Amino acid sequence: MARNSRxxxxxxxxxxxxxxxxxxxxxxxxxxxxxxxxxTISRDIKELGLIKILTDSKKYKYAIVSSSNQAVSNKCLxxxxxxxxxxxxxxxxxxxxxxxxxxxxxxxFVDQLSINSVLGCTFGEDTVMIITADIEDAYLVxxxxxxxxxx
Amino acid sequence: MARNSRxxxxxxxxxxxxxxxxxxxxxxxxxxxxxxxxxTISRDIKELGLIKILTDSKKYKYAIVSSSNQAVSNKCLxxxxxxxxxxxxxxxxxxxxxxxxxxxxxxxFVDQLSINSVLGCTFGEDTVMIITADIEDAYLVxxxxxxxxxx
DNA sequence: AATCAAAATGTATAAATATGCAAAAAGCAC
DNA sequence: GTGCTTTTTGCATATTTATACATTTTGATT
Lengths: 151, 151
What we know:
Chain A is an alpha+beta fold.
């Protein structure tokens, strides 16, 4: 569906760039050949439960709502699920395979979850690597992510 | 200073009521005899780093930015500091004395901090009670709060 | 394919928010 | 106090976002 794909792109865009306004988002989406208007974006943003937060430079930017304040919106969760193909462990790492181009967004998402044992995330085109302190923690994180995906 | 007092009132208002718009906030402030315009509120909100999140009923309301996403804004922290008079332990409880009328706001704030050992908070007019699992946890929470206030 | 129902989107505009600029208020030094 | 600087605020308005309504698209059923 075009809509899901577009919303997934929105999540990706806001996790990579500092998007200040919906018009800016429209422009970025046009560049990625999603031809939509601001009105549609406004609706997408509401559905995804995105918020505007202040950056260090005192400008507003769109962001995914953090987990402690409020549950991640169902819509976000669904998109997250669709993008993750597999979750595997390797020593003190958890490796996620994702749809091409969505790894950045997924990595950002994992960061947002603020799981205690996650030390950090890096990502490429279709792979996210989560670093934990030890093998046991990697296992815990994998469990946790599986739980979230199973919701 | 009138400004700090007003901003403190704003934090209190948004923690107690679901404030959907700045105009609504202006009205509430007027009722509390703070006579200001929407423009000023807009600036206050920016300074406090407040955000708009979706409620369960799909309406937007103002909220304090959560701790995991981003540090609580300096401004919020300052106001928090000014409102807390003392922090004491009693068994598995931590008891905060606050300025009259600000306990609700402070309690909300403590919730936002998402400290692990905090099981829950209740409050009256000028007292916040934090419940923890045991005496040791109460001590840890007290330590943590003192750290935050000392920042 | 034709028909209907539901969902998604665009257009136009209402509603909400941010901000440039000028005025007022608050500090501060003398 | 007076004069000067800095901060805060209001007014007017630009900018940004949400939404009512109409239209288009999608999907299912026959």
